[in-house]
Specification:
Layout: E1 2-3, H1 19-48, E2 70-74, E3 77-81
Parallel strand pairs: 1-2
Antiparallel strand pairs: 2-3
């Protein structure tokens, strides 16, 4: 989930995404790219913070992008889009 300011331009007069939404979408796309490149290191963080008797479901250890959905929210509007965003 990405929260954006309600005070910026959410949509243009033509109905296209405004600056605020485009910024939120870019940040989500950056996060998605980071996940693809660094998921293994994120897995190491999960393992580091688990106790010896604790475990996580296998979904935490395998990047399965079909389970990931992104949302950019502004006050008054919710714009959702399932992958891909390009």
């Amino acid at each position: 989930m990405k929260l954006e300011s309600p005070y910026g331009q959410i949509v243009t007069k033509d109905g296209d995404f405004g600056n605020v939404i485009r910024k939120g979408i870019k940040q989500v796309m950056d996060w998605d790219s980071w996940l693809e490149k660094n998921y293994y290191s994120l897995r190491l963080v999960f393992e580091k913070h688990l106790g010896k008797m604790e475990s996580l479901p296998k979904e935490f250890f395998e990047l399965e992008k079909s389970r990931i959905h992104y949302v950019v929210i502004t006050v008054g509007e919710v714009i959702t889009r399932k992958r891909p965003m390009n």
